[in-house]
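W.,

You were right to be curious about this one. When I first looked at the sequence I had no strong expectations either way, so I just let the prediction run and decided to look at it fresh. Below is the sequence, 336 residues in total, followed by the output.
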Amino acid sequence: MTADLGLTSPHDGPARVLAASECAIDIDDVVARYPRMDHPSIDHVTLKVRTGALLGLLGPNGAGKTTLLSLLCALMRPQSGAIRVQGMRFDDHPEAYKDLIGLVPQALALYPRLTGTENLAVFGQMSGLSGRQLRARMDFAIDFAGLNEMAQRRVETYSGGLRRRLNLATALLPDPPVLVLDEPTVGIDPQSRHAIHENLRQLSVEGKTIIYTSHYLDEIEQLCDDIAILDRGRLIAQGSLGALLARFTGNRIDLRLEPQDAHRAAGVLSGEPGVQSVTAAGSLVTLATDDPHRRLPAVLAALEAAQLRPVGLSVGPRDLEQAFLSLTGTELRDEP
């Protein structure tokens, strides 16, 4: 399934088709299914990512994000469709294909009893580096990750944030043109999160293509210039943040209530004149209506009569969270 927003530039201009030379990642009508599953985990997904993009990949738990990353990194194979990185297919050049992608998994892959430098040496050698080239790449990675003062200390003494930085540094050793980061800032301090973000922005400016998954919507909103949203194995939207929000401006009212009141409020409002549909997800109640500004006073009056008082409201989504909930109808951390 092709995203209906198309692919945009970092600016909020109209969608356009990428030339082959601009396309770093080309996922074409890919289907993937795990054994003994009734439905595909990835269902006819087509996704094109331009060179140098910093793409935020979002979706509820079970939406297929991890499966899509596994397919891209050739950790599993699709049943149909094709995946190309810089024009190359894994089946044609397996070793060369893997060299194009640096994977930073959510689970830390480090040797705690070795120092930071020793970890980098081990992973660099695994990547085929040696001698002066290895030393140069290690120096770059240490400096890039801001680990100069900690490089000679054992990783078991590192904070969670420093381990995350080192985890990222190991993926940079072979200097891959594409980086895939799966929840790289889980459980770390704001200072380390900021350092990682600044480093990724610089890599993107230098032309590295980055796919970034996170449960922190504010991270994606602040960091990424393109956003793709998966749900139930399908790609349901892709574009800049501005394009995603523009899709929902106008005929909607968002009400934030106490979580225990949201579903009751949805029931109260479902019969209001001019209200076409009502959805409740977590504490957010969303109304599709013919004229939100004209209908808002009656909506608030109906809630007041039911002794329900919203703690916040807006007309049209103002942030990525509201757009995400409108598209998927679920909280980001909900189970499938």
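Here's what jumped out at me. The radius of gyration is 22 Å. And, maybe more interesting for your project: The first helix runs from residue 65 to 72.

Coffee later to discuss?

I.
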